[in-house]
Write a structure and sequence with these properties.
This protein is of the alpha+beta class. The chain has helices spanning 17-23, 28-37, 108-119, 145-152, 222-229, and strands spanning 3-7, 39-42, 45-46, 58-62, 79-82, 86-91, 126-127, 136-142, 157-165, 170-174, 177-179, 186-188, 196-205, 208-215, 249-257, 264-268.
Length: 270
C-alpha cells in the first residue's frame, strides 16, 4: 500500500487535514477514497479530515489498495527506467495501449498487468502518456493513482521522430484539432482544442524527410494531423495521407521532473 508522510510546518499550522491534503496535491476525489478505503494518521493515530493540525505533527495518508481488473498476459515488456513510483517503457509498434472492443487482448496494459503480478504489485495500470497503436517508443506509466495525478499536472517534454513525404524545413504548427462525433479521424477546425507542434528536418533523402517533432500539447493523432495539414503526411499513413497504413512514428525522447524525488529524468530511445 502506498503511503505519503508529511511533517506539519509553520506554513501549514492550524490547517485542517483536508486543506493540508489539497496543499500537498491530493485531489478531493482521492481524499474521499482515502477516507473510505484507506486511513489518515496524525502521529500514528487515526484522525478525521476536520482535525486541526499543529506545527511539528506528522501526517500519514494511507492510500487505498487498488484493484487491477486488467487480464495479465505474458507479453515481452521493455522497461528502460523503473523506481518505486513509476516506470518508462519502450513500447513496440503495432500494439494497442489499452484493451478496446476491437482489441480486447494482447495490449500493453495486459503486459503491464502481467509484470505487476510477477512483482506482487496490485495497482491497476495508469498510463501517463498513451501512444497510438502504430507508434513506438518511450511512454510513462505511474504505479499508483496518486503518482498519476501528480504527473498529469507536470510538463512532460516529448520529442518524436517520423518520416514524412516531401522536403520539410522547420517551423511551428499552431492549429486546433477537432474530433467529429465517433469518427477516428481528427480534423483541423476552429471548434477544436488548442494544439501546437514544433518540427524540424534532420535528414532529407529521396523525397522523404526525417523530422523531429516536439509537442506542447498532447492531442490524439496530433503529429499525424498537423504534418498532413501542412502538406507532409507521414509516409505510409492511410488515415491522413495516401499510404497503406503502416507508418513510422517514434517517441524518441522524454524528460520530466520526478513527482517524488524532484530530480530531472531524461531518457532517449536507444
Amino acid at each position: 500500500m502506498l503511503k505519503k508522510e508529511c511533517l506539519v510546518t509553520k506554513q501549514y499550522h492550524q490547517y485542517k487535514i483536508d486543506e493540508f491534503a489539497y496543499a500537498h496535491h491530493i485531489s478531493k476525489k482521492l481524499l474521499k477514497s482515502i477516507k473510505l478505503q484507506g486511513d489518515i494518521l496524525v502521529n500514528g493515530n487515526h484522525q478525521t479530515v476536520r482535525y486541526s493540525l499543529q506545527e511539528g505533527e506528522k501526517v500519514t495518508f494511507l492510500f487505498p489498495q487498488e484493484n487491477n481488473q486488467i487480464l495479465p498476459e505474458d507479453i515481452p515488456l521493455k522497461i528502460v527506467y523503473e523506481d518505486l513510483y513509476l516506470m518508462v517503457i519502450d513500447k513496440a509498434p503495432c500494439i494497442s495501449c489499452i484493451p478496446t472492443r476491437g482489441h480486447p487482448h494482447h495490449t500493453l496494459a495486459n503486459a503491464i498487468s502481467y509484470y505487476y503480478q510477477q512483482i506482487g504489485l496490485t495497482s491497476t495500470v495508469h498510463m501517463v502518456n498513451r501512444l497510438d497503436k502504430e507508434t513506438a517508443g518511450l511512454m510513462i506509466v505511474a504505479k499508483y493513482r496518486y503518482i498519476h495525478d501528480l504527473m498529469s499536472k507536470r510538463h512532460i517534454y516529448r520529442l518524436y521522430r517520423a518520416h514524412v513525404n516531401g522536403k520539410v524545413e522547420q517551423g511551428v504548427i499552431d492549429l486546433p484539432i477537432y474530433k467529429i462525433d465517433k469518427q477516428m479521424k481528427r480534423v483541423i477546425d476552429e471548434r477544436g482544442k488548442i494544439s501546437k507542434t514544433h518540427y524540424q528536418c534532420i535528414q532529407y533523402k529521396e523525397e522523404i524527410s526525417l523530422v523531429e517533432c516536439q509537442l506542447e500539447t498532447g492531442r490524439t493523432h496530433q503529429i499525424r494531423v498537423h504534418m498532413s495539414a501542412i502538406g507532409h503526411p507521414l509516409v505510409g499513413d492511410s488515415l491522413y495521407g495516401n499510404g497503406q497504413g503502416c507508418f513510422d512514428l517514434t517517441s524518441f525522447k522524454i524528460c520530466f521532473i520526478h513527482p517524488i524525488t524532484h530530480q530531472l529524468i531524461s531518457l532517449t530511445k536507444q
